[in-house]
């Protein structure tokens, strides 16, 4: 059995980044991975400009109670003329500072008297001026290849004029669930059956990563059905993800089927919830077999499949940020596997952020994963006393 760290390292070694790229309109690149650096061909902001609505002046002319005639008006998008000594230019936020002006006086700090302004407050040289290039200079690398584009990244790319971006093509992931007990929501539930929840969890996790989802539904627990589904999935997708049937019971056919069509490279991780996680290859497709227990499927996808997929997509920053929080609940069970306990943050009486454990940590209790907003990451054998500092991985670092 591999440790969680070993499994992650072994998976990442095997994650081959995509090679094919495409040009996509910047506004459609949310969640896409940049395939090339973006270099600025302009300076941002291009000119010194006003940070305020007010008057562009020479600071030395601004003696309190003196009055300056307004000699020109410059709105955003316009370029004025050089400022005559002893005058002020009406100026608006974002408008270029006229030559020979060295400060902007806020309109709140002057009194308008006909075509002049009276100075209420002294002005410092440089005040309320946003300098050309204070954000970006020509030739700067604005974003690097491997960046996963968030809304902020889209805006930054647009600020240097990028209308389209060179991004990796979308990764295709096919998934199916295994289990004779599974029924699709929308159908009645006969005795002995359960609704297939993993299909939905996995679909959501795949969509969150911005991958294309190829849904192959659910299949019965037989070797022929498993072989057929795996073969089809491996022909359609870059990565095949299954849930269930990857353990050691007579009804578990996934591992045997993958071994028959390709190879199993990695199996079993010393973690809870989880354990029967498998990785292999079928021709050019990667195979990831998630455990069937719903919380295990959610946790193993989030902690192992996700970084694998992100690297496969071409992303560079693929691991979650782990926080250090104070424990609000105790944990005394000494386990022999690394545990990822479902927990929720709260502000303690003294204002410090702390994590409270969900009372039922069973891998079948899916409510734990909606009640919680993260995993407490417990080393093998670690126990928790209230007040201990613990490792916490917020779910929003994983989605
Ligand atoms: P397995 O890994 O196939 O032995 O399944 C372990 C447990 O997870 C069993 O209780 C299954 O009924 C349950 N399970 C397996 N697949 C799913 C699924 N797609 N949705 C909900 N529960 C499942
Ligand atoms: Mg099963």
List key phrases describing it.
Molybdopterin biosynthesis moeA protein, domain 3; alpha/beta; Molybdenum Cofactor Biosythetic Enzyme, Chain A; 4 domains; Molybdopterin biosynthesis moea protein, domain 2; binds adenosine monophosphate; elongated; six-stranded mixed beta sheet; 399 residues; binds magnesium ion
User: What compounds sit in this structure?
Assistant: adenosine monophosphate, magnesium ion
CATH H level, superfamily name of the largest domain: MoaB/Mog-like domain
Task: Determine the N-to-C terminus distance.
Answer: 27 Å
Q: Report the CATH architecture of the largest domain.
A: 3-Layer(aba) Sandwich
Residue windows where pLDDT falls under 50 for at least 5 positions? none
Q: Note the overall shape.
A: elongated
Give the number of DSSP strands: 26
Tally of individual helices:
7
Spatial strand arrangement across the major sheet: 7-4-6-5-9-8
Roughly what percent helix? 10-25%
Number of domain modules: 4
Percent in strands:
25-35%
Biggest β-sheet: count, sense, barrel? 6 strands, mixed
Task: Produce a short descriptive summary.
By secondary structure, this protein is an alpha/beta fold. Helix content is 20%, strand content 30%.
Q: How is this structure best described in words?
A:
By secondary structure, the protein is an alpha/beta fold. The chain has four domains: 4-19 and 170-313, 3-Layer(aba) Sandwich (Molybdenum Cofactor Biosythetic Enzyme, Chain A); 21-41 and 141-168, Molybdopterin biosynthesis moea protein, domain 2 (Alpha-Beta Complex), CATH 3.90.105; 49-130, Molybdopterin biosynthesis moea protein, domain 3 (Molybdopterin biosynthesis moeA protein, domain 3); 323-397, Beta-clip, CATH 2.40.340.10. It contains seven helices and 26 strands. Strands 7-4-6-5-9-8 form a six-stranded mixed β-sheet, with no helix packed on it. The chain has a six-stranded mixed β-sheet with strand order 16-13-17-21-20-18, sandwiched between helices. Strand 8 and strand 9 (116-119) form a beta hairpin. The protein binds adenosine monophosphate and magnesium ion. Residues 178-179, 221, 244-245, 251, 292 line the site of magnesium ion.
């Amino acid at each position: 059995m591999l440790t969680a760290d070993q499994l992650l390292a072994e998976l990442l070694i095997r994650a081959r980044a995509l090679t094919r790229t495409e040009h996509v309109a910047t506004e459609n690149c949310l969640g896409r991975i940049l395939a090339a650096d973006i270099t600025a061909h302009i300076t941002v902001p291009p000119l010194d400009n006003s940070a305020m609505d007010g008057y562009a002046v020479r600071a030395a002319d601004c003696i309190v109670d003196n009055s300056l005639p307004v000699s020109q008006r410059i709105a955003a998008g316009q370029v004025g003329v050089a400022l005559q000594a002893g005058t002020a230019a009406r100026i608006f936020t974002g408008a270029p500072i006229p030559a020979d002006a060295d400060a902007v006086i806020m309109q709140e700090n002057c009194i308008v008297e006909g075509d002049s302004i009276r100075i209420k407050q002294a002005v410092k040289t440089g005040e309320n001026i946003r300098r050309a290039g204070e954000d970006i200079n020509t030739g700067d690398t604005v974003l690097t290849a491997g960046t996963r584009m968030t809304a902020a990244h889209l805006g930054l790319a647009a600020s240097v004029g990028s209308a389209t971006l060179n991004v990796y093509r979308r990764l295709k992931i096919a998934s199916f669930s295994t289990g004779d007990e599974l029924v699709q929501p929308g159908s009645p539930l006969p005795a002995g059956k359960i609704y297939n929840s993993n299909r939905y969890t996995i679909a959501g996790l795949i969509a969150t990563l911005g991958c294309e989802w190829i849904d192959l539904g659910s299949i019965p627990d037989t070797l022929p059905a498993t072989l057929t589904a795996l073969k089809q999935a491996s022909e359609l997708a870059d990565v095949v993800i299954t849930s269930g049937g990857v353990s050691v019971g007579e009804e578990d056919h996934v591992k045997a089927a993958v071994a028959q069509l390709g190879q199993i490279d990695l199996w079993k991780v010393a973690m809870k919830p989880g354990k029967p996680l498998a990785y292999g290859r079928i021709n050019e497709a990667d195979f990831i077999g998630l455990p069937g227990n719903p919380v295990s499927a959610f946790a193993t996808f989030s902690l192992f499949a996700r970084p694998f997929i992100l690297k496969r997509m071409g992303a560079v920053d693929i691991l979650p940020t782990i926080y250090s929080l104070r424990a609000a609940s105790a944990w005394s069970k000494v386990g022999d596997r690394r545990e990822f306990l479902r927990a929720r943050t709260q502000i303690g009486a003294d204002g410090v952020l702390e994590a409270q454990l969900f009372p039922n940590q069973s891998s079948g209790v899916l409510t734990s994963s909606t009640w919680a907003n993260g995993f407490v990451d417990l080393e093998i054998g670690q126990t928790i006393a209230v007040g201990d500092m613990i490792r916490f991985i917020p779910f929003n670092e994983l989605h």
